[in-house]
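Record format v2
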Amino acid sequence: MAIKGRDITVTFQNGTRAVDHVSFQIEKGIYGLLGENGAGKTTLMRVLTTLLKPREGTVLLNDMEYKEESYEKIRREIGYLPQELGLYPNLTVRETLEYMGGLAGMSKARCRERLDYYLEKTSLSEHQNKKNRQLSGGMKRRVGLIQALLHDPQVLVIDEPTTGLDPEERIRIRNLLVDFSRERIVLFSTHVVEDLAATCNQLAIMKKGRMVYEGEMKKLMEKAKGHVWLCEGIKEEEAGELMKKYRISSKIYTERGLQLKIVSEKKPGLSCSPIEAGLEDAYIYMTG
Amino acid sequence: MKYNVKIAVPFYKGVYSILFVIILAFVRGISDVREIGAAMDANIALLAMVFCADGYYQEFSGGRWEVFQLCPGKRKWQTLRQRFFLQVIWLTIIAMAGYFVFYWQRPEKSFETSDMVLWLWFGLAAIGSIFFFGSLSFTLVNLWNNLWAGLGISVIVWSLLNSTTGQRLPEALYVFAYGGTGTGFLDSSLKGNWIWGKLSAMLLGSILLLLGGWKVKKKVWIPR
C-alpha cells in the first residue's frame, strides 16, 4: 500500500504556482505534512484526493495512475476530511453519517454496522441523535472523521484536523488518527508542530509550494542538531539586534533577562550555548 | 429519501414558501375564479426559481463540496435529482393549497366548468412552471457555480417571458400561455391549448436538468 507522487505541479489560472515539482512516497502509517498557511498543503491534498488535477507530474495509488477514467476507483479507496467540513444542520449525527454512507455507495446494513463501531470508537454514541448544529467544534471534527472512514478507505487524508480545538479535543483526535493508521495510510496536514511530534515518524515540510524536507522525523532533528542555541541574560537592545539577524524559536523573560532560543548555523553570541533541537526548531531550521 | 426531504425542504424554506403564497393571495386582487390560476402561475414560477436554485450549490456554500465531489457520480446525480423533485412536489402542493386562499376575495363564478376541474388544471399548469423555472435556476447556478449569476439570468428569462415580448411566442412554446393574453385572458385557462406551452417548457426543463447532471458528474470546481 503506497502513494507515490512525482514532480507534481499545480498552477492556478492567476499564475500562482501552489505546488511546485513535489515528489514523495507515502506508505502505511501516519505521514505528516507540515507547513505554514499558504504553503500548498491543502492543494497537494486536493491532488491526492483527485479533487484537483495537477498541471504536471504523476500520482500513483498502489501503482494505479491518477487518470480521469480511474478516478471513481481511486475515490473508493480515499477518505477525506477537509479543513472545514460543513455538516447538514438539520440532520442528526446518525442521519448525516447514514446519508453520507449512502452517497458513498454503501449498503444500509454495512453502513449501520460500521457506523455503530465508529460512533463507539469516537465516543459519539451518546450524541448520535443530536442535530449537527448542536455539536461542539471537536464533535464536528469527529463526525467528519467518521464520514471519512465509513467506507473503509485504504487512504485517509486529513487536512488540519486540530485547528481551533481545545487541548483535550486535540489529543483525542490525534489518538484516533493513530488508532486508524494501523491498517491504512493516514496523511495528516497541520501547521501545529506538536501534533506531528505526537503522532508520526514520517513527514514532509512544505514552503511556498515546494517540499523542503521529506523523510523521517528523527533525521530531520539530526539535521538541526548543533544549530539550535540557547542565549540567556540578554538585554532588550541586544535582543532586538539578534531578532533582526536570526530566527528565534522561543523568547522568555527570566529574572536574569531575556532568554532566547535561536536557530542558526553559527553560534550567535558569547552568551549562547548549543541545545538539543526540538521539532519546532528543526522546522524553523529547514524553512529558514 | 427522508434525509433528502430535510435537506431539500428545510424548515425556513417551508415557511417562506407558504408565506409567499399567502401574501400573494392577499396582495394580488382578483374578481373572477378564472383569475386565480393566472395570478399564481407566473408568481409560483418566481418562487420555484429561488427555491430550487441551491439544490447543489448548498454543498459549496455549506462547506461540503469536497466530500460530496468524491462520491460516485451516479449517486451524486441521483441524490440531486431526488432533491429537485422533492422541491417540485412541495411547491406544487403549496401552490395547489394556496389556490384556495384566494377565495377570501370572494371571486365571481360566471361559467359552467366546476371549481374542482379548474383547480386540477391549475395544478397541471403549476407543475409545468415550477419544473421549468426550477430546473432553469438549478442548472444555471451549477453551470456558473454562482448563485447570483444563475438566479439573475433566471430572473431575466422570467421577466422576458412574463412580458409582452414573451406573449409574442406561439402558444405551443409559451410557458405562461395558461395565464392568457389580451382581452380574452379569462377564458384561456378553460381552453386547454396552454398545455402545449407547459409541455414544451417541461421538455426544455428536462434538457436543462440533463445538462446540470452532466456538469455535476463531470466538473470539479475549486473555489477561490
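Chain B touches chain A at residues 3, 6-7, 10-11, 62-64, 66-73, 75-76, 79, 220, 222, 224 (CB under 8 Å).
Chain B has one domain: 2-218.
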